[in-house]
From TrEMBL:
SUPFAM superfamilies, alphabetized: Cation efflux protein cytoplasmic domain-like, Cation efflux protein transmembrane domain-like
Places the protein is found: Membrane
The protein's name: Cation transporter
Alphabetized InterPro entries for the sequence: Cation_efflux (IPR002524), Cation_efflux_CTD_sf (IPR036837), Cation_efflux_TM (IPR058533), Cation_efflux_TMD_sf (IPR027469), SLC30A9 (IPR040177)
Main location: membrane
Top-level lineage group: Bacteria
Pfam families: Cation_efflux
Domain called Cation efflux protein transmembrane: residue spans: 23-233
Segments passing through the bilayer: 20-40, 90-110, 130-148, 177-198, 204-226
Lineage summary: Bacteria, Bacillati, Actinomycetota, Actinomycetes, Pseudonocardiales
Record keywords: Membrane, Transmembrane, Transmembrane helix, Transport
Membrane topology: Multi-pass membrane protein
Length: 341
């Protein structure tokens, strides 16, 4: 068991190290890009460039919050927080999503509307904007490639596609960087189009429209990230493959007649709480039951490294109140829940 715990800690530390590096790369890129965009916005008077500067400022603030999430979620469990601080990663990632909306999207939308309906605005030195946008695209692409490499590696390790991994992962820091950088590249293209159309037509409307669309884009990213982290904070079930595998192991134990109920909850990245209600064989003595529970705990921890806390509760499978609670939660699918296969 100690070796298994050491392996789990090692895997968690490696994954956290990869996530930290991914966030740091994005932080450095966005900080430099943001300053360049701000200077370009001042020199050119482009609303799209100012919107992009706000976009980068939001992303920089987000990366700072994600670093906070990585640091604080790694603290050990204590008396006040017996299940650890893993959910702080979800909380700070949620705050990061709010930051994207408040500091980026709102500014970009207001600036876009102001320029679109506030009359013509003179554009100066558009070549500066083009150069800054091109350099920003290269830096954002480098940051995105780092996030994509990590996502592909982790998805491959879990036998999933990138799309499925992004939808089901419990590590919001990497997904935040991925969505931010993807939105940043799209935003740069919108800004390029806005500056170009302004120069070509002489109308600031297109510049303002680009700013507005960048704001809408940021709102969409903030919504996706906020919804994901909300689900994790509320208490999302563990990966279904893990739940079914744990169910099968419990049902295969000779001392267990039926798995009456199995509850799981993500308590952090790669941390799962399990509560299993089991109908044990009536022939077991109290001492046998105690030893069996210890054996089951050790077996599950040895096989499933994500299991952080395991609770086993002996219950009769024919108890009407327990059966009603299980059927209310799972519906008719609860029939035969405890049988493997």
């Amino acid at each position: 068991m100690p070796d298994g715990d050491d392996d789990k800690r090692g895997d968690t530390e490696r994954q956290d190290g990869e996530s930290t590096l991914t966030v740091l790369v994005a932080l450095g890129a966005n900080l430099g890009i943001g300053l360049l965009k701000l200077v370009a916005g001042i020199l050119t008077g482009s609303a799209a460039m100012f919107a992009e500067a706000a976009h980068s400022a939001a992303d920089t603030a987000t990366e700072g919050l994600l670093l906070t999430a990585l640091h604080r979620s790694g603290r050990k469990a204590d008396r006040r927080h017996p299940f650890g601080y893993g959910k702080e990663r979800f909380f700070w990632s949620l705050i990061a999503a709010v930051s994207i909306f408040v500091s980026g999207a709102v500014f970009a939308i207001i600036e876009g509307v102001r320029v679109m309906f506030g009359g013509e605005a003179e554009q100066t030195l558009p070549v500066v904007a083009y150069l800054v946008l091109a350099l920003s695209f290269v830096l954002e692409a480098a940051s995105l490639s780092r996030a994509v490499r990590q996502i592909r590696a982790e998805a491959r390790a879990e036998g999933q596609s990138m799309r499925v991994w992004l939808r089901t992962t419990d590590d919001p820091t990497v997904t935040s960087v991925f969505y931010e950088d993807t939105a940043a590249l799209i935003g740069l293209l919108l800004a390029f189009a806005g500056v170009g159309l302004h120069q070509f037509t002489g109308s600031a409307f297109w510049d303002g429209l680009a700013s507005l669309l960048i704001g809408v884009l940021l709102s969409g990213v903030a919504y996706v990230l906020g919804r994901t982290n909300l689900g994790l904070l509320v208490g999302r079930q563990a990966d279904r493959r893990l739940v079914l595998a744990v169910r099968d192991r419990l049902a295969a134990r000779p001392e267990v007649e039926q798995v009456v109920d199995l509850l799981t909850m993500m308590t952090g990245t790669d941390r799962v709480l399990v509560c299993a209600r089991l109908d044990f064989c009536d022939a077991l003595t109290a001492a046998d039951l105690e030893r069996t529970c210890v054996d089951i705990d050790e077996q599950l921890r040895a096989e499933f490294s994500d299991l952080d806390e395991i609770f086993l509760e002996p219950v009769p499978r024919n108890d009407p109140r327990m059966r009603a609670r299980v059927l209310e939660r799972y519906g008719s699918g609860a029939e035969g829940w405890g049988r493997a296969g």
